[in-house]
Structures are given as C-alpha cells and as structure tokens.
Amino acid sequence: MGFGLFVPEFRATFEMTSSTVGLVSSLGFAGFFIGLLAAQALLIRYGPEAPVITGLGCATLGLAAGVFVAAASAGFAWTPFNDAVHRKVGEPDRPAALSRISTGTSLGIAAAGMAALAMVLAGLPWRQCWWAFAVASAGVLVLNWSALRPVEKSAPAGPAARWTRLLHPGVVPLYLIGFVFRLT
Prior knowledge:
By secondary structure, the protein is mostly helical. The chain has one domain (19-183). The chain is built from 8 helices and no strands.
C-alpha cells in the first residue's frame, strides 16, 4: 500500500512508465492473494506463528522483489491472527482484540502517509522512508514471534477441509466482490 504513495518519486528515480507502475501494483495484489492461500496451508499445518512470522519476514525483506513480497505479508498475517484470537481470547474480549490487531494496519498506512508527506514537504529521501519501514517490520516480526509462540496449531482437519472447497459455487460471489474491489 505504501508503493502508491511513493510512485511520483519512484517514477522520477527509476523512469517508470504508467504501465510499469500498473504492473508493480498488480504484483502487490497478486502477492497478497498468494499470501492468503499459503497462510491457510501454514496455519493448518503449523499454527498461527508460522504464517505470521513468514508474512512479517516477507515485509522485512520486501524491497527488491518488493511490492509483491511485502504485500504477501498482509495475506500471510490476516487469517492466522483471527485464528489465534479465536483460540486464545475469550468470546467477550474477541471484538476488542481483533480491533486492536486491525489498528496495526491503520497505523502502518498512516505512518506511510506521514513519511510520504515528509518526503514531499521536507525533502526526506524515499530510501530513508523505506529503510524505516524495513526496520519497523523487523521489530514487529520479533514482537509477534514472541507473542505467538505459545499458540498451538489447530487439530488436523478432516477430509472435508480440502482445497477443492475453493471451487464450490457458493464462493463465486466472494470472488466477484474481490475482483471488483481490486479492479476499482
């Protein structure tokens, strides 16, 4: 999501065309989607720690192969955090816990906006902004690693929990909504 805020600087620095900007943005959303699919497999096999740590590792390493890998971090973390909350937090406290977790994304987007504003108004180099995000991501990775270590993986799923469920006609509306959302 931070990529879009820095596009004017990237275009100037790397002489990116509109097509290249669109391709890089599309790779970001593809990374998010692949992260969601991989997270579910890791979640079932290893519990929430593995996909969240993998996702945060992707965010930390995400500059070069960049937007794709960094965007995958959100896909890796989203479902496992919900799973961890449902297994470790009591029913009355779940909404507040999920809200606090979601606030992290909002704070990250706000920080990206402030960094982009500082870049434009104060002449802060974009590379410093991206390094700051990489360092912050590494810090969040360590915090989540310690917080999620005590969360056990879920019990093995029966034969009904197969990837073929993704092809069930009942999920078509979700795919259409997702397609329209990303297209917009």
